[in-house]
């Protein structure tokens, strides 16, 4: 084929248009996805390292698109955030998880803490705490069985407003975890006032444990710092026995990762708890 600048430009142009079109289409589809009940939640077990026992789960959002099949949140959460749709979807996740957790307790399953991810866009809303309170009341789930995962970014802002919300949640009995810990620009000083219960060590550190570098040192520093501050520590993304071994040696409290289980449907999670399969 003959090469010309003009052609390159056209191809580039068409490519951009295609991508823009796809984004717009995706936004429109996301808009109706909630109404069409296309979202669902998967649960990834949280395992107590010392007892080798499941003690809870993290709830993770999935979208079953009629056109594209099941899609992971990395591909659509940013779009939900840009459009503000995350507020409604996030509240749906919260309600769905609290409802399911209460149902499990009513069926006699051991009581568990289930974690829900909260977008900064959601957390910044003035009525966020009221919405959480409302959902707990509506679903009759005790606050101590709900953990909210917020990112270091929210934590770092450390404004009077954010702190007030965290204290209100904490006073209600809701647990707070700092997600992806170690990837932000955290300063230790905020933990003085910060009402959190646990640190979730980002999986990037865990996965590079066996490579050369500082990841081992970082992990053991986070764990001992967490413990000195009276916080629980969770290692995310544990995939191998070697990683687990190191995490254990360091005294980490909980682990989450493919080594134990991928995120699974509520039905499978219930079976796992009842019949102890896979662990
Ligand atoms: P996250 O909160 O850090 O969640 C952990 C991610 O790591 C999940 O990806 C999980 O499937 C994956 N993971 C768990 N164990 C392993 C492992 O051993 N190896 C590897 N390679 N990955 C592992 P997922 O479900 O695709 O979620 C991606 C991100 O999307 C989450 O990261 C979270 O930031 C966001 N997200 C998920 N659900 C929600 C939600 O309901 N609301 C909000 N606002 N964000 C959510
Ligand atoms: Ca999380
Ligand atoms: Ca995380
Ligand atoms: Ca993450």
Task: Give an overview in words.
The protein has 279 residues and is of the alpha/beta class. The chain has helices spanning 5-33, 77-83, 86-106, 120-124, 128-139, 152-157, 160-172, 203-207, 215-228, 241-249, 266-275; strands at residues 39-48, 53-65, 69-71, 113-117, 146-151, 175-181, 198-201, 232-235, 254-255, 264-265. An eight-stranded mixed beta barrel has the order 1-2-4-5-6-7-8-9, surrounded by four helices. Strand 8 (232-235), helix 10 (241-249) and strand 9 (254-255) form a beta-alpha-beta unit. The protein is globular, with a radius of gyration of 21 Å. One calcium ion binds next to loops. This is EAL domain-containing protein. It is found in: Cell membrane. Residues 23-277 form the EAL domain.
